[in-house]
């Protein structure tokens, strides 16, 4: 059993609220205040969960520098009240940052869900060569 510190519990809450505000900001026609608040809460929660040093190391790795630039540039654009362009840039940066993690997620979802059509879809997205259902 992994022990979770109080800072990590606070970080999970901050990240959850950040995702809620981001979703709510998009649903309310890209409200810049809600999106900015969601971005700040999400990044703060991430720093609380994995630590400030590891967060900086994650964003400023040499191979992830382009994704980090787009992601943090999108956050800056949202904070400067250009929400639609900022969220588009931020979304591209998010995809570039986590593109190596997506096959793992799709593979997990494919093994987690026992619905035949979805399992086949997730297996094809994860790059798995076995098509057995």
UniProtKB/TrEMBL annotation:
<feature type="transmembrane region" description="Helical">
    <location>
        <begin position="12"/>
        <end position="30"/>
    </location>
</feature>
<dbReference type="GO" id="GO:0042147">
    <property type="term" value="P:retrograde transport, endosome to Golgi"/>
</dbReference>
<feature type="transmembrane region" description="Helical">
    <location>
        <begin position="101"/>
        <end position="122"/>
    </location>
</feature>
<dbReference type="GO" id="GO:0000139">
    <property type="term" value="C:Golgi membrane"/>
</dbReference>
<dbReference type="InterPro" id="IPR045176">
    <property type="entry name" value="Got1"/>
</dbReference>
<dbReference type="InterPro" id="IPR007305">
    <property type="entry name" value="Vesicle_transpt_Got1/SFT2"/>
</dbReference>
<feature type="transmembrane region" description="Helical">
    <location>
        <begin position="68"/>
        <end position="89"/>
    </location>
</feature>
<dbReference type="Pfam" id="PF04178">
    <property type="entry name" value="Got1"/>
</dbReference>
<dbReference type="GO" id="GO:0005829">
    <property type="term" value="C:cytosol"/>
</dbReference>
<keyword id="KW-1133">Transmembrane helix</keyword>
<comment type="function">
    <text>May be involved in fusion of ER-derived transport vesicles with the Golgi complex.</text>
</comment>
<keyword id="KW-0472">Membrane</keyword>
<comment type="similarity">
    <text>Belongs to the GOT1 family.</text>
</comment>
<keyword id="KW-0333">Golgi apparatus</keyword>
<keyword id="KW-0812">Transmembrane</keyword>
<dbReference type="GO" id="GO:0005783">
    <property type="term" value="C:endoplasmic reticulum"/>
</dbReference>
<feature type="transmembrane region" description="Helical">
    <location>
        <begin position="36"/>
        <end position="56"/>
    </location>
</feature>
<dbReference type="GO" id="GO:0006888">
    <property type="term" value="P:endoplasmic reticulum to Golgi vesicle-mediated transport"/>
</dbReference>
<protein>
    <submittedName>
        <fullName>Vesicle transport protein GOT1A</fullName>
    </submittedName>
</protein>
